[in-house]
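Sequence, structure tokens reproduced for absentees:
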Amino acid sequence: MEGLAVAPKFVDVTLPAGATFRETVPRGHTAFAYLDQGEVRFGPEQKAARAPALVIFGEGDTVEASAGPGGGRFLLAAARPIGEPIARHGPFVMNTRAEIEQALQDLRSGHFIRDEPRDA
């Protein structure tokens, strides 16, 4: 994806058993991997994760992964942080608890999905 201020990167990675993966991530970007199949070892310390799992990476500029005996699949996502507050509950991620409460109220009342966008 190009032209966005946060410069996002998304990589869908499927690793056969024993395969390795390396991807450069710009310094200062926040990166995570959502593992949805198998077992994968991440980083130079080879920390194992089994699906389903979310792995959040610390500072660095390279993501390293090695598949376990059955292989594995994960989505690598990285972007420049925007520095906004985060509130989460279940599948909802917003900036404030009040926004979460509004989303839950909209869901319960049947108004969560609209036919037309509000900003139109």
Notes: Residues 97-109 form the longest helix (13 residues). The chain has a mean pLDDT of 91. DSSP finds one helix and eight strands in the chain.
